[in-house]
Model the fold of this input.
Amino acid sequence: MSETQQKPGSIGWMDLTVADATGVRDFYQAVVGLTPGGVEMGGYEDYCMTPPGAAAPVCGVCHARGANADLPPVWIPYFIVSDIESSLAASDARGGTRVTALKSMGAARYCVVRDPAGAVCALYQP
Done:
């Protein structure tokens, strides 16, 4: 992610979790021009997708397996937050629900939440 994408309130990543990630990967490659890169997940691959001419991927297409088994098949934006504990407390207090537990990815932490209207997003603290 660039520095701009790291600012609180910005979208730093998008993920799509579906039963047939390989077929959907091929769809976005053909329709949008995204170039896939495999990410080993322990017996199968998910995919990071890079736009034409870009140096880094901007989104992922994932299989609905393992930790992602219960995620809905929708594009999930990862909103950058400066303090994930505070953001989760605010979400809880305002009718949001946690779809996943708070997870770590290196030093980063994230959690997928559902807003009071039912829409899903992730809160991500780099």
In short: The beta strands are 11-18, 35-40, 45-50, 59-63, 75-80, 97-98, 103-105, 108-114, 120-125.
